[in-house]
Amino acid sequence: MTEVSPPISAAALSNTDQLLRSLEAAGYLADRRTATTVYLANQLAKPILVAGPAGTGKTQLAKSVADIAGARLVRLQCYEGLDESKALYEWNYRKQLLRIETERATGGGESAWNRVEADIFSPEFLLERPLLAAIRSSDPVVLLIDEVDRIEVETEALLLEVLSDYQVSVPELGTIAALRVPLVFLTSNSTRELSEALKRRCLFLHLDYPSLERERAIVQAKVPDVAARLRDQLTLVVRSLRSLDLRKRPSVSETLDWAHALVLMECADLDGDIVDETLHVLLKSHGDLEKARAALSGAPGSTG
């Protein structure tokens, strides 16, 4: 196997301990397992597949690594129907037509057309999409392929060449190899099983909802104005809600939204009324709100 240099040589990623400290300084509280996986992915020049429930910090991990490393973040947001024209590249048809019309206006025979044909399929007429942009960048890049489980299995084939060989094949131009290998994060909410071929190319990291202690620390770091007692109460309520059979469990970002909302309302202590008034900040469907209200009512310990 050909030895590959780490995509990012920044001091922030030089070892696991330094990475933990750098992420914490950037406001991302990672555990050692997460930091170790990111460190190894960078050293091995391997993509990381980060799976877990929505709202557990998967996307933010990639953003934070780019931030502490001083790297450019290139993001491909996946969705059903994504194709190579949106993920890899497409030709600038309007510019190509203008070039052809210009040549026609000036005249010329078959040799002129051959010249034009070669010209319009040159890099000048190529529109970069996220994957090709990451490959062609000469600067350090963190490539985020977000919610990869949203695309069809067939579309995953578009990613395989990039993830294994860090190159893109353009029939009219040939193979475009990476000027500099990007550090790649793929995120998945596990809505469907990904192909073995894709998983085989990646290191794997599962991010679940944080422990009660870690979520308290996150709230303290992100919403320093919240009082300690209120912080403890709201994180307990969020933890109890996640144990329910909800359509969508509250994410960490929604915990932070709730903490901000309670500070704005000058709330010093949670009670049933304030929880009922603000529960919609955490939960986003009528059914979930009804289930939560039923579970929380008559349970004073959950808000006290």
Helix content: 40-55%
Give the low-confidence spans.
300-304
Task: State the major sheet.
Answer: 5 strands, parallel
Rg is 24 Å
- CATH class of the largest domain equals Alpha Beta
Mass-distribution shape = elongated
Could you explain how this protein is built, in words?
- This protein has 304 residues and is α/β, with parallel strands linked by helices.
- The protein folds into three domains: 11-82 and 129-206, P-loop containing nucleotide triphosphate hydrolases (Rossmann fold); 90-123, no CATH class; 212-296.
- 47% of the residues lie in helices and 13% in strands.
- The strands form three sheets. It has a five-stranded parallel sheet with strand order 2-5-8-1-9, sandwiched between helices. Strands 3-4 form a two-stranded antiparallel ribbon. It has a two-stranded antiparallel sheet with strand order 6-7.
- Strand 6 (167-170) and strand 7 form a beta hairpin.
- Helix 1 (16-25) crosses helix 2 (32-44), helix 5 (93-106) runs antiparallel to helix 6 and helix 10 (212-222) crosses helix 11 (228-242).
What is shown here, in short?
By secondary structure, this protein is an alpha/beta fold.
Topology:
Blueprint: H1 16-25, H2 32-44, E1 48-51, H3 58-69, E2 72-77, H4 84-87, E3 89-91, H5 93-106, H6 110-120, E4 126-128, H7 130-136, E5 141-146, H8 157-165, E6 167-170, E7 174-177, E8 183-188, H9 196-200, E9 203-206, H10 212-222, H11 228-242, H12 252-264, H13 272-278, H14 286-296
Parallel strand pairs: 1-8, 1-9, 2-5, 5-8
Antiparallel strand pairs: 3-4, 6-7
Describe this protein with a few key phrases.
304 residues; alpha/beta; Rossmann fold; 3 domains; five-stranded parallel beta sheet; two-stranded antiparallel sheet; 9 strands; elongated; disordered C terminus
